Amino acid sequence: MITSEFPVLQDSSNESGPGDTVSYSTLSVSELDDVGDTKGKRKRGRPARSTAASKKPRKSPVEKLGPLRGKKTNGVAQQNGEGDPTTLFEVVRLGKSAMQSVVDDWIESYKQDRDLALLDLINFFIQCSGCKGAVRIEMFRNMQNAEIIRKMTEEFDEDSGDYPLTMPGPQWKKFRYNFCEFIGVLIRQCQYSIIYDEYMMDTVISLLTGLSDSQVRAFRHTSTLAAMKLMTALVNVALNLSINQDNTQRQYDSERNKMAGKRANEKLELLLEKRKELQENQDEIENMMNSIFKGIFVHRYRDAIAEIRAICIEEIGVWMKMYSDAFLNDSYLKYVGWTLHDRQGEVRLKCLKALQNLYTNRELFPKLELFTNRFKDRIVSMTLDKEYDVAVEAIRLVTLILQGSEDALSNEDCENVYHLVYSAHRPVAVAAGEFLHRKLFSRHDPQAEEALAKRRGRNSPNGNLVRMLVLFFLESELHEHAAYLVDSLWDSSQDLLKDWECMTELLLEEALQGEEVLGDRHESALIELMVCTIRQAAEAHPPVGRGTGKRVLTAKERKTQIDDKNKLTEHFIMALPMLLSKYQTDSEKVSNLLQVPQFFDLDVYSAGRMEKHLDSLLKQMRFVVEKHTDTDVLEACSRTYSILCSEEYTIMNRVDIARSQLIDELSDRFGHSVEDLLQEGDEADDDDIYNVLSSLKRLTAFHNAHDLTKWDLFGSCYRLLKMGIEQGSMPEQIAVQALQCSHYSILWQLVKVTEGSPSKDDLIALRRVVKSFLAVCQQCLSNVNTPVKEQAFMLLCDLLMIFSHQLTTGGREGLQPLVFNPDGALQNELLNFILDHVFIDQDDENQSMGGSTKNNLNNSPIYYNDYGDIIKETLSKTRQTDKILCAKTLILSLQKLFNELVQDQGPNLDRTSSHVSGIKELARRFALTFGLDQIKTREAVATLHKDGIEFAFKYQNPKGPDFPPPNLAFLEVLCEFSSKLLRQDKKTVHSYLEKFMTEQMMERREDVWLPLIAYRNSLLTGGDDDRMSVTSANSSSKASSVRSKKGRPPLHKKRPEGDPRTEEGMEGSWMMRNDTLQTPGALQTPQLTSTVLRENPRQAADHVPDQDSSEAGSEPDYIHKRGLMEDDAEPIFEDVMMSSRGQLEDMNEEFEDTMVIDLPPSRNRRERAELRPDFFDSAAIIEDESVSCYMFWSCIYRNHFNCMLSASSEFYLFIFFCQGFGMQMF
Which InterPro entries does the UniProt entry name for this protein (predicted)? Predict the structure, then answer.
């Protein structure tokens, strides 16, 4: 056993039970080719030191690596003047020598003088931790390990916080690899003799155990990694011993079973002696592993540092896979199961990968059965982990469990994974698709299924699987994204998804005997899925929303794409006309089928002499256009005609003739019907209206993708619009289509003008057309029909952006006559449209804003849900343009809301009312938009406080100076921005505040003066909170001293004197700034909506008292029923799911259902606060919370329209956002 001089946990430690002992009933090892002399070994324990005089001088193990080496002073290697490596640390760091050579040199040195060799090894671990100190020979001989570690801790330089294992860059990444390799090679080279000398291993294990208990993070991290790699190497040695012992036992039994005359007694004695020797070695290795496991692992697997916990879990997974007979049992699996609840994704990821390595081996499933039953629910729930990498690995692990035993997962477990195929995160969806393929779409007996399909007359055996795919898609009630489903299954089920012959066979042919007939819904779903598979094969990239963009295809992927495109083209050139003929009356099916030609390789028509199939397709498309007026169908036809008319294909002329014939017929029909409608006037009947509308819909759909200006559709549409404005009797659908068609006509005329060399007459003619159309659209804004107003508004926005001053950029100065600048009347009409049609109650859209605002005070989240992205984008754009002006805009909007509240409730506001709380909540969210970089927003925040203070003291109370100013309560709103001030700026703002205060104000303590008191306190407190400690964290369960908390480094460096952003420079820069915006008084404005107060979970979490000394968050005492787990301390865990807290059970209750254990109270809670992640993400907070859009937008666009949008380009940006409102609203 290890002596008391080297502190380790003994068997009586309450940190581990008897089940934690590494016991081997069948221990083994590889052949012992070169076993050292193990007879006459000393009893375990540290031997007496030999005197220095009796020792022979020796070289350092690394001094053999080059001619120039450093000298030794008191046994410590010194750096020579040439900069050559002279220590083990430098050799390993540089990695220029083979690791086996380095270890062999050290072993040679150890044989000469083991004290000096061990001193080199000790200093190696110390230096790998980043410590500048060194252990000297006197310290090694005369001091205990605890004293040495304490001395090294005092010499440790923690100012930087970095040490070799955490330093960035490829050099240090390579060092980590070399460090681990050195330990593995060291044990491998010493496994036959030195590790059994009861000296080297005792010293190393005791040192690592002490370092792993250090308060210094670098010591703890480095020693834990070294100990875990040392344990892995010892496990490999133990495995080899076990194998060798089994071989020896078999040889002994074989020899013993021989007849007495043939039995070799000397050989039996040798085998017995060898078996005894192996058993002794096995016992020593077992003792070493138990010392490492109990002394280091059971404490560090729940360390406060996530990386340390991850190292422990990663290595225990290696042990269980490498030596499953000894480690793959519940005594060790429990640590992985507990750590599945770790709050850091890095640790949970290591757990899952460790389990994947185990579940990959089918032979290990019986040993994992109990673990699977206990922790299956947790593993399945981790498929919804908030860390996508963890979720992906959890799905893969569930797939491995399914492959090993389908009975292990219930239907509910499978359904929890099924819906993830619709995830927007592609790796998660692909992993779920692999699971779905294994569960539902894998063919169990391909040969039998192919024979059955041939007997039934089918060309493909995938008929049943295709039906199952359709059924799965239809039963996914919450999802309707066929493209996502296809993309999820693409990697695992390509053979099924590319079986277009089977799909068209099911659609075109009648069901055979024994086959279920496809219903209408099933046919629609199958067509939609089929089109998605065609798109995926032709484009070879995920659908929109999956992935960051199109990646460059490899040569193999490009070849596959070309082959797939040729295959689908050859098949659907013949099949598509038949499908269109069968479903030509079904608009949904036809609109999907008409997308197929867009993915054709159109050269196949001419190269394969398939023009007759092209004629069939054009014929069916003409029938579709004549029979349908649905917009989706007509637009699909228009796009298909446009692709078929591409100039690079030889079929262009044939298609162009068919298209021109179709447009001629539609145009003639439209012209005659318009004349009839205009002549009939108010007496027009439904047939006249239908004839105009049906023709106009078809022409509008085609005009979007085709240049139809030669048919002069603008004239007829303009006449219809003018008649509707003058008579007020035009049907709204005709007016909407006429507006859209006229818009397309103008755009095509602009294309011709920009592409050619237009004359002055051409520009004047186009300007006249645009001007007349803008006037018509402006008149339509006052139309009684809402769809007409919406269409006119969006077209106005489009045209004003297109014909803005940007039209003349890029060398197009000649187009200056086409630039339009909207007048003030048009701007006001556009703004009034937003106020009247966007910020209204969804249940009462016909009411004006002013009439519904009071009732909507608590319903404002609907505005944020609809337009939150536009609000954040506008805030971002204004902040990028001018931070100061943006800050002034925010404070001005809050001031305006405060003025309106004073008008409604009077000067004596109820500070606890929902209205005041709503303004404060809006201010809090405005404060979050300033982000975390206080240096960048320093001047803007200070300016905001300056304007707020001036507003609060702008008016004196008419009752006298003893009464508070009317706007004093606004300071309570301003408190929300105090946290965004730097410490020195808080003093400056407080000094500015005192300029407005009298001595009487400073002494008042009545309730009406509480806003002033609260604001002063927010400026005077928290000044010292900006500095963070950089002391290292610790989490040892055995340390009795008070641990220093891990903090963050200072956020900002001290600025040099004279910097304009220092305290003095800041005061001069914002105190004396000339205001560009005046603080308003009591403005007469409509009442505005407010926010709905909702508890902020992050804010609530901040009020939870610290529980460092208690057992907060630890598991309750579990009832010991099954004996699955022995007594041990539990890891720290929390809920880490993507789903909301309301959808999950309490973690303690869930954990109690999956594991029945009896755990003692944890002693490793002093550093619990360090595991708490930083959730302060302003963007995420704004995403999750509702905010009053109308407060912000009305104040910005009403009060700062001239300031923020003075330039025409900014005005059109404003129009763009307004159009976005309309598009999302309607």
Answer: ARM-type_fold (IPR016024), Cohesin_Scc3/SA (IPR039662), HEAT_SCC3-SA (IPR056396), SCD (IPR020839), STAG (IPR013721)
